[in-house]
Amino acid sequence: MNFDTIAVRALNALARRTGKKLAKKEGYAAQPAPAVPIRMKNKEDDLFRCGFASKITMPENIHDHPYYLAGHRTGKTVSDILDPLTVSAMWLDCKDGGMLLIGADMVGFSNVEANAIRDALKDFAQKTDCRSINILCTHNHAGIDTLGYWGKAIVGPIPGNGKDPAYMELITQNIRACCEEAYANRKEGKLYIGTIHVPEAVFRKREPIYCRDVLSRIRFVPEDGSKETWLLNFGAHPNTMGGANQLISAEYPGFMRAKINETKPTNVLFGVGAIAACDPGQYSEDVYECSRMEGAALAEAAFRIDNDVLLSPEITVIRQPYLAPVDNAVLALMSIVKTVNYEKAAYKDSDLGLALRTEMTYIQIGSQKILLLPGEAVPEFVFDHYSPAETSATGKGPEINAKPLVRVADDENLIVFGLANDMTGYMVPLNDFVLNETGPYLNTAKDRFGNRHYHETNSLSPKITQVVSDTFARIMEQVK
To answer: How far apart are CA 440 and CA 394, in angstroms?
Structure first.
């Protein structure tokens, strides 16, 4: 028996003890009941109201205090700033209650921290009749650690908490200020949805070589002719700058926003799509130039969208809590030692007897269906491009996989935002899910074709896609 096997067994035993203690204290948790839809509709005219605000969100002592850089190796501190990080808020209503979409140049927040931000906005929500608050992280890999994964290692590969409390408080303060300003800035106007294919802007190494190359733009056009507000979505990881980088940057989402505004002053809120295993376009060997070129390509494509469809002023929101089973003892340990701030529950349908409490949110604006997911989904799970048995990593066919999300929605044009309101790891279909035999979740594996499987090491469980698909199906039943 090698060291990795011993380590995994020890981690599993620790996690199972935690699950048993929780079960003894609280009992085993069940999947939450279906949530009640929130429906809003303008019965007066065909107009929405939208407001926007954005703030640079950087600590003043960035050069005098150690901040951990998120997204690649642990324990790496910031050396300087390439371009600043921001938070933004987009208010949207149809004169019958409203909702907020918050954008953040952050690697991600846990659901506990997302709910803390909601709590900080509770009085604002009551005053403005805001019925839904959602946080979309760009998942940039050159930002400050806001999740905890990237502090100094404390036990083997397990990092200590890399979050800085003062910076987390600054983020909350700036988000609140943006929300208040966005509400004050709201104007009447019309809302449109348009899309364009940008195949050169996304690249994938892992089989199957499928990427979702669609850039989606939800576009608010004010009646008074003032600045438009765009909600953009694209499925490529903001990770161009690589593991050696120590400069803070918003990466390609920041360069994209800047390039759009060079052409036409525009409010832009960006959220990533199904980004697991999908990288930006391979424009240059210079990592910084590659990030700039990715941003420029998406900015230029956004202006070329010419298929806008008018959306009717109706909004439906369903925020559905659910339990995500945890079979990954490494991620479980990071929660147990409070490297990350997750709310755990005892759960029978898990190898470790544990689950994380998390959520997904369904939003329908007019005819456009939108799903906010708390993790990083491979695009084939969302958009129905599963591998056949002949080419799958396991040799098994797609019939063992969960129902793809576009099939659950019965809509090929479903827009998915990842890293929304939580960060719960990768979502990989069962017939392509391969673990290391001696060190599962600790070491990467190779499949029967010799292809490397990294993403499974940061997945909660092989069951996660089925749980996500089933939860979404319950949501769609509520919509109907």
So the answer is: 15
Note the pLDDT tens digit of each residue in 353-395. 999 999 999 999 999 999 999 999 999 999 999 999 999 999 9
Which of these, 441, 142, 123, 131, lies nearest to 280 by C-alpha position?
Answer: 142
Q: What is the mean pLDDT of residues 339-345?
A: 95
> Alpha carbon 370 to chain centroid distance?
13
The most distant pair of C-alpha atoms in the chain lies apart, rounded to whole Å, by 72
Please state, in angstroms and as integers, the Cα–Cα distance from residue 144 to each residue in 267, 305, 373, 406, following that order: 24, 33, 22, 33
Give the number of other Cβ atoms within 10 Å of residue 166's Cβ: 11
CA distance 66 to 282: 32
170 CB burial (10 A radius; 0-12, 13-18, 19+):
middle
Q: What is the reported pLDDT for 7?
A: 83
Cis previous bond, 37, omega within 30: no
Query: Within 10 A of 285 (CB to CB), how many other CB atoms are there?
Result: 7
Return all residues near 25 (Cβ < 8 A) that are at least 6 apart: none
